[in-house]
Every structure is written in C-alpha cells, then in structure tokens.
Design a protein that fits this description.
The complex is a heterodimer of chains A (334) and B (540). By secondary structure, chain A is mainly α. Helix content of chain A is 75%, strand content 1%. Chain A has a single domain, classed as Orthogonal Bundle (ABC transporter involved in vitamin B12 uptake, BtuC). In chain B, strands 6-9-10-3-11-12 form a six-stranded mixed beta sheet, sandwiched between helices. In chain B, strands 18-21-22-15-23-24 form a six-stranded mixed beta sheet, sandwiched between helices. Chain B is built from 19 helices and 24 strands. The chains are: A mainly alpha (334), B alpha/beta (540).
C-alpha cells in the first residue's frame, strides 16, 4: 500500500544495506557457509570438493531451470521427479533391449535411448500443459496427478527394479566424457542454461511467460496467446527434466525407477532460494543456477560435516521457508 | 459518479442535536510529526493530523502524496518511523491491525480484504466468528449480518458468495464489515468509487448517523463534489507533507485543487476540438450472452470523442469489453471501418487497430512485477518493429518505449523500474502507452481516470486530444458524469442494459442524462428506502 512518489528520496544507509542484502544475500550466505564449514571440516574448500560441487550443481541447475520456466508463469511441476524416473527407466529399457536384440550400432542405440527419453518428456509436458492451460485444472492438481502417472509408468515398465547394463558408451558420452578437460555434465548444463536464458530474454515466448505469470488477465487483454505459451512452458519444463534424467542415468549406469525421488523438492527449493517468485513473473536463469549452487553446496557441506541425513532434510526445509520469506520481503519492497 | 444532489450540509436529521451533546471534545486522534520512509521514498514527512469526535475529516491529495500511507499508519498496517500517535488521549506504540480494530479503528481500504469463496455473512464475521459450544453459531451470525446490512440500507444477500458479487457490492460488504464492531474511528478510502448514486446517498446518510454518534471519520477522496458535501475539515497532502488543514466551508474547489497540485490549474477539462469524420466503429443490435447488454446500437467516428454514460452496472463497460472480445456476444454485428468483423478476440482486435483500456488497471492492465518497458510493449509483440519472428528486437524496443514514455511524461521517465513502484496516475500512463506502441485507430476507454488525481487526469485528457488529432476514434465510457459531459462530442446514455439516448450539442447536459436514468424508473420509486430515492428524484 505504499505510495512511492516520483521524487527519488535518498536511501538511508540501513535501507541501502537491506536492499544490498536482498540482492546479493545468497552469494554472501554461500561464501559464509563454505568458510564456516571449512573451519569444522577443511576438506570443504579443497579443490577436489569444489570441483565435485560444480559437477553436482550441473544436474540440479538443469532441474531448477526446468522448474523455473513454469514457476515464472505462476505454476510449478510436482511431477518433475517422477518424470525423471520414468525417462530414466524408459530410455534404459530401449537401449538394453536393442543390445539384447543383437544391435551393435552404438550411436543408433544411444540416439534411440535419448529420443525415447525426450519423447516421454514431451508427452508428459503436453499432458501437464494442456490440463493447466486448456482445461484450466490448477497446476497443483494436474502435476500431482501426473506425478502418480509417471511413478506408475516407471515402476510398471521396470517391474520396480533398476534396469542394469545400460551401455557403457552412454555413460562415456553423458557422464565421464570431457571436452578440454571439462566434464560432460557441466558442458551439457552450460549449453542448456544458455539456451534457456536466451529463450527467456530474447524471444516473444519467453517474454510472454513473465507477463502471463505477472498478470494472466492483463496478458490476455494484450492479446498474448496464453494457452499456447503456457502449454509450451510445461513442455519445455518436462523436456529439460528428460535431459537431466538422461544425464543422471548416464551417471548411475542404470535406469532407476526411484531416480527422481528428491528432485522435485530440490528443484523447487533451488529456484525459490535463487529468487524465483512463486507468485509468478519474477526469476531467471541466474537465479536458478545460483539457487542450485546453494542447495548443492549446502548438502555437500552438511555431508562432509557428517550431519545426519534426516537432519539435513530438516535444514533444507527451513532454508526453503526462509527463502520464501525473503521473497515476501522483496515483493513488499516493491 | 455524479455530483451528489446535495441535501443540506451535514444533513442528518438529528445531527446537530447530538453534536452538542458530544461537546466533551478532546481529539479522538492526534498525530504529531509522523514520518514514514519506504525504500527510495519518504512517504510521510513530519505530518501532523488530528481528528475530532463526530467529524468527517477528508484527506485530499494527488496519487503518491501519502494519503494511503497515512491511513495505513492509523490502521496499524505498519508503524511510523517517528512521531507521536495519540488515540483517545493515550499514546499508542507498535500498533497492530488487530489491536487497532479492538480499539475501534475500522479501515475500509480500496483493496478489499474479503475472501471470494466465502459468503457475505462468513466474510463479515471472519476472524471474530460467534460460536456456541465450540460450534459456529451460523444462525446468530446470519441474523446479525442481515441486521447490519438492513441498517446500511444496502441491497445485499448475506448468503451469496462474495466472489460472485459486483465490485460495488463487495464494497458494501467491506463497509458493513467495518461497522460490525463498535467503531470509534472509521477510515473510508474512496468508498464511492464503485457505488451507484443511490448507494452513495445511503452511504452519506450512514456517515451522517455515525457522525452524530460521535464517530470520527477519515475520508479519502478525489471527488470534489462529495468532498464539499460531507467534509467538516480537509487536510491536503502533497509529496508526503501536509500542506494545510482547512474548514470545508472556508475554501473553494479551485483553491483546494491549487493547494493539492502546488500550482494553478486553470481548467479541469481541456477544450477538445472534435472533427468528426468517417465511422470507424459501428455496433448494431448487440446483445451479450450474459444479458448485461441488450440490443445496443452505436457508432464512433474518427476525430471525435463518443461518450457513453450510465450508472454502475448498466452494461456500458460490458459493451466495449464485448467489442474487444472479452465478453461473449450472443447476437448483433460489429463493423470496423465499414466491414463486418466476426472474430471477437483481443488479438484480432489489436491487429485491426482496436484497443481496450480496462478500468481496473491492477487486475487487468498491468504485470506489476515487470518493468515499464515490458508492460508498454506487451500488446505489440507481434509487430515486426518489436520482434523479428520470435526474436525480440531489444534495442529498438528500448528506444521506441523510451520515446513513448517521454511523450506521456511518465514520472520518473524511466523504462526499467517495475510498474508496481509507480503511482496510480503513472500506472495509467503505462497502460495508455500501449495505444501508442502500435497503430491503434479505435480507443475504447473504460473509466480512464478512476482513482487518479486531477493533474494526471488532465494529462490523460490531453493525450485524448492528441489522439483525436491523429485521426483516432475515442469511445469514452465513464461513470463520472462531468467527464463525459465535458469531453464528448456525442453522448450515449445506457440504462438497464439498453441504449436509451444519444445526445448531441446543447443536449449534452446533466439534466438530460439524469432524466434518462429516472424516466423509466419513476413508477417504481418508493419501493426502496424512501429518503434516498426522494433525494435522487429531486435531482432529476
């Protein structure tokens, strides 16, 4: 209810500090956390561990970016985790099946595996998107439903067991491979994130997502094709989830029906902590990456400090709530 | 809204008598040196304000002058950074909204605090439900709700869901809610913005009754007519400072406007040169599926302002919304530039050069979290000037939007701040900027100056003049009668979903318009609350 006048009054030093903290608080918190844990456990800041954090971040950053694309439109995707599981199992089954049938053309096998995964992602995204935008079912119910559907698919086609013997070449390509010494997952994440960033900042589609999320009715009045764009947003989200799922499958070397267990929560947490507003219209790739880095570093530090896994869950939960609180402060300041 | 047909000032039947009884006259509220700072803005700068028992104290000022901040401080929404807050002689610190209510401070804000999914009576008792043996005592609450609503003389069904009510009715619920408790200090923030004439009269009668009971009332309004009618004293705010507190009967309207603006404002309405040319928009026998518009025919020509007057809820707003494709059409034809159009959709209409500007800018006009730039270009992203296929031409966009923002004299003239940071008048300019971002020939304005101050209003009117010179056709829908009376070349009047008159030239005057409203109602007069209807009839 504030009535900011046009006259730009000077900020008091306290408020300048507050504004600075809201903008850069996360980086400061990250540095403080790393140093704090390093005092307890010097390994935290070892080059090996830092590299490890970066590798880990590349997965979560992809998922956070996926989540961010729909959160910006005032939605979210609860089915992201089980989409990851379903994609992992389906692509692994296709690849192992082709090998079992005597196919030896590795590039074709891997291509088919990846296309299967991406195709499944596309299907889930279309389903979510159409339910949300055309049928007007809210995002919570829709994606809760598809969460179960994907979980069902993943467990049914795999009989609930991991699909072993994913071709080693697949892991070589998406996990252990390097270009100029940079690990494949990091490269894939960078490419994906740059693409998402360009999509959001330079395309009419990306711009429209912010406007639709910022005020859906205003977007409709401005003649933006909201339904089409919203559907596409969910498709982009699920496709990114599929990319991340393929990366994870390459890392484990098997199709895992429980691969996406924590992914939904982590991705939402990373996006929100990074500063993507659940109220829509605010957020970007930078936020997703920063949030992902923070979530990864936090669990990495807690792991090294031998904090109990369940306690870690409690701390992560608290951090998410704190992040939403900060988001409120930020909105209030606006 | 129409200049109120004034009953004698302070016209309550027993006002004077009770006032004299209330002569114990310590101030109800006394604020000294109140300051409040928000990031980047000093919203209140050392403001003194006092309110007596049984007084209507009007707060007057431009958007962004600090009125909202002040009433929020009084309602306990947030605390002041400095200053003294005396209420009923006691110093109050760290006031919370709840505490304020308990002490009898009841605010009615423009932004409603209602739950759309709940019924009227549930909303009235929200947070102070009555219970018996731990169960909600619904019957008692419903009875009390009926009683309060009847006392207010509002036409409200307590069992209806609030979300299904019109804005005017929601406003009544909000007022009823404020009065449910023992009120000592009532805050009304532009309460008449969405009320009809008859409802306004009822509200004023109520204000008189409360005043007689010694309740102090802080009343925020931009409407000169009603301010002069109900105010005892007026405080003028400008840029967060209090400029003056004056007795209402000691100041003229012009002086008041000058105090508010800090400069001389010669005219409230500019002179508009109409040069009517060909028909750009023609609507024939339009009937909407909702029934809010029935068999309406009108046309709008290039180079003139076509006004549509009518009471709140008469269907005038729905009419132009339907033309833009926002309300489903049942039958009728719409001709654009002489050719019949069939696709009623915003996208198609924008492409055809028709743009609708909504009255509720926060709900329908703006993405508040997004920058000015994106909000202005948002209806033009399909144009090659702004995007090559899907790729936005960001440099060109910046330049074009900066030009538009400069032309509209947006303050500050920056394109990157979030729109949510701007004041009401500037927000409206951002919405209007859309009409300049692409080639628009037919402008459909829905209450274009509601909730914005005199200075900004004048700028909106100037923009309309400019558009006319560029050969646009302007359809101006407004509940503010002086506005349509002064600006229209031809004025249509709508009543009960139908077009009842088309006035031109000398016929465009208040009597003619009011006559349209009450002509057919006359036989029914007296069915409603009597004094209010009589007052209206005498005005007509």
């Amino acid at each position: 209810m504030s009535e900011p006048s046009a006259a730009g009054a000077k900020l008091s030093s306290g408020q300048a500090l507050a504004a600075f903290m809201v903008r850069h608080g996360l980086i400061i918190a990250l540095v403080v956390m790393e140093i704090g844990f390093a005092i307890v456990e010097p390994l935290v800041l070892s080059p090996g561990n830092l590299l490890n954090i970066i590798q880990q971040t590349s997965y979560i950053a992809v998922f956070a970016a996926a989540q961010m694309v729909v959160i910006v439109t005032r939605g979210f995707d609860l089915s992201l985790g089980t989409t990851v599981s379903a994609v992992s199992v389906a692509s692994a089954l296709v690849m192992t099946g082709m090998v079992a049938n005597g196919s030896t053309n590795m590039p074709v096998i891997m291509l088919m595996g990846m296309l299967t995964g991406l195709g499944l992602g596309l299907a889930v995204g279309l389903f979510n998107g159409i339910c949300v935008s055309v049928l007007n079912v809210n995002a919570f119910v829709t994606t809760l439903g598809s969460l179960n559907i994907c979980f069902g698919i993943a467990t049914t086609i795999s009989d609930g067991r991991p699909v072993f013997d994913v071709p080693r070449e697949f892991s070589g390509l998406l996990y252990s491979g390097t270009i100029l010494g940079v690990p494949a997952p990091v490269i894939i994440a960078i490419v994906v994130l740059i693409a998402i960033h360009l999509m959001l900042t330079w395309t009419v589609f990306g711009r429209s997502l912010y406007l639709i999320g910022g005020n859906p009715r205003a977007a409709a009045l401005a003649g933006l094709p909201s339904k089409r764009y919203l559907t596409t947003a969910y498709v982009v989200c699920s496709l990114l989830a599929a990319v991340g799922a393929l990366m994870l499958t390459a890392r484990t070397g098997s199709g895992e029906p429980n691969l996406g267990g924590n992914v939904t929560l982590q991705s939402i947490a990373a996006a929100v902590i990074g500063g993507v507003s659940l109220r829509g219209g605010v957020g970007g790739t930078y936020a997703a990456v920063l949030g992902a880095l923070f979530v990864t570093a936090l669990s990495n530090c807690m792991g090294l400090a031998r904090i109990d896994g369940y306690i870690q869950q409690i701390i992560l939960g608290c951090v998410i709530i704190a992040a939403i609180f900060v988001d409120r402060l930020r909105t209030g300041a606006r | 809204m129409f200049p109120a047909p004034a009953p004698s000032r302070g016209g309550g039947r027993f006002t004077e008598a009770v006032n004299s009884m209330n002569e114990h006259d310590g101030n109800l509220l006394e604020l000294t040196g109140i300051s409040k700072r928000f990031p980047g803005v000093l919203a209140l700068d050392n403001v003194d304000f006092d309110l007596r028992h049984g007084e209507v104290h009007v707060l007057f000022g431009e958007n962004g002058a600090g009125k909202s901040t002040l009433i929020n401080v009084i309602a306990g929404t947030f605390g002041p950074d400095s200053g003294r807050f005396l209420y009923q002689g006691r110093e109050i610190r760290k006031l919370t909204p709840h505490q304020a209510r308990v002490m009898g401070i009841s605010p009615v804000f423009q932004e409603f605090s209602l739950v759309p999914e709940m019924t009227v009576d549930e909303n009235l008792f929200l947070g102070r439900e009555r219970s018996r043996f731990t169960f909600l005592n619904k019957r008692a609450m419903r009875a009390k709700a009926r009683e309060v609503i009847a006392e207010l003389g509002f036409n409200l069904d307590p069992t209806r869901k609030v979300g299904s009510l019109s804005r005017a009715h929601q406003q009544m619920v909000e007022i009823a809610k404020a009065l449910l408790t023992d009120v000592r200090l009532l805050i009304l923030d532009e309460p008449t913005a969405s009320l009809t004439e008859a409802e306004t009269i009822k509200l004023f009668a109520l204000i008189d009754r409360l005043r007689a009971q010694g309740v102090g009332i802080i009343y925020v309004s931009h409407r000169m007519g009603e301010i002069k009618q109900i105010a005892d004293r007026i405080s003028v705010l400008r840029d967060g400072r209090k400029i003056a507190t004056v007795r209402s009967d000691e100041i003229s309207e012009t002086e008041l406007v000058e105090l508010m603006a800090g400069r001389k404002i010669e005219v409230l309405f500019p002179h508009v040169d109409h040069r009517p040319a060909e028909d750009l928009l023609e609507v024939r026998n339009l009937t909407l599926a909702s029934g809010s518009v029935k068999d309406v025919t009108f046309h709008a020509r290039a180079g003139e302002i076509t006004g549509i007057a009518g009471l709140v809820g008469c269907g005038k707003s729905e009419l132009i919304r339907a033309v833009f494709g926002l309300d489903p059409v049942e039958s009728g034809t719409v001709l654009l530039y002489g050719k019949e159009t069939s696709s009623f959709k915003p996208t198609a209409m924008l492409r055809a050069g028709v743009c609708y500007f909504p009255s509720d800018r926060v709900a329908e006009g703006l993405a508040l979290a997004r920058p000015v730039r994106e909000n202005v270009s948002m209806a033009a992203l399909d144009l090659p000037e702004f995007a090559k296929g899907q790729v936005i031409r960001r440099k060109e966009e910046k330049k074009t939007i900066q030009d538009i923002v400069d032309r509209l004299k947006l303050r500050p003239p920056q394109i990157e701040p979030a729109v949510g940071r701007l004041s009401g008048g500037n927000r409206q300019k951002v919405v209007l900027g859309r009409g300049l971002a692409r080639e628009i020939r037919v402008f459909l304005f829905d209450e274009p100056t509601v909730g914005i101050d005199v200075g900004a209003k004048l700028e909106v009117y100037e923009l309309m003049k400019l558009l006319l010179e560029m050969g646009a056709a302007i359809v101006l829908v407004s509940s503010e009668l002086p506005e349509v009376l002064h600006l229209s070349n031809r004025l249509y009047v709508m009543h009960h979903a139908r077009m009842v008159a088309e006035l031109t030239g000398q016929d465009i005057n208040e009597q003619a318009v009011l006559a349209c409203f009450f002509r057919e109602d006359a036989p029914n007069a007296g069915s409603d609350e009597v004094p209010a209807e009589r007052a209206v009839a005498s005005a007509a």
